[in-house]
Amino acid sequence: QSYEGLDGKQYYQYCTAYPVGTMIAQTWNTDLAYTMGLNVGQEMEHYGISQWLAPGMNIHRNPLCGRNFEYYSEDPLVAGLIGGNEALGVQSNKGVGVTFKHFAGNDQENSRYSQNDVVSERAFREIYLKQFEIAVKMSNPMGMMSTYGIVNGVPSANDHDLQEDILRTEWGFNGLVTTDWWTKGEHYKETLAGNDIKMGTGYPERLMEALEKGLLTRKDLEI
User: Fold this and answer.
1) Quick one: which of 86, 98, 56 has its CA closest to 73?
2) pLDDT tens digits, one per residue of 19-43
3) Is 209 helix (H, G, I), strand (E, B) or coil?
4) pLDDT for 180-213, tens place per residue?
5) In 3D, which of 30, 132, 134, 130 has the Cα closest to residue 89?
6) Between the CA of residue 110 and those of 67, 75, 84, 159, what are the distances in Å?
7) Which residues contact 142 (CB under 8 A, 6 or more apart)?
8) Cα–Cα distance measured from residue 68 to residue 28, given in angstroms and rounded to the nearest whole number
9) What is the pTM of this model?
10) Catalytic residues
């Protein structure tokens, strides 16, 4: 596919095919992860792409998870250190950044829209959040992507405790949070939870209805 770059030149977007995340993690080599990120960031800058929808940071809880190839490990420390170094490499290039995903608990493929993870707070923090915490504190990423799924009855994309209290207040994240693509959640709940961008399916009339009913304010939309 060809397109016109920021400099007016025509480019063909043939990017380097890097090894999948699992293979990078198997090296246990954080310098290698940084170098790969550095090279990815250079290509992003070259092609005029500002935000990479990666690294994938979820846990290999089940070997049948369809996204495991882009996730790193069943161990949150390994995943956090590899992902964090890869992000540092990408963001060492001017004007480009990463989007860690899927935050959080996206660890199976079946029923990704409706699956409900019933998990204790300790297990959630020590297994399913720890790699995100490590990588966020290491690299201050440009973005985070919330998930389709549900944790203890609350859709992750609607979870204010997760997006605001843990991610922003506890961990100091100051970047952008986007929903996953084609999420079916209510706009106003995702807005109040801390998502800055709604991707995919849109229902602007429902957003206006929520605004008219006072379920959210103009200020909520502007934050």
Assistant:
1) 56
2) 999 999 999 999 999 999 999 999 9
3) helix
4) 987 777 788 888 898 888 886 667 777 788 889 9
5) 30
6) 11, 22, 28, 21
7) 50, 51, 91, 96, 97, 98, 99, 175, 176
8) 17
9) 0.89
10) 180
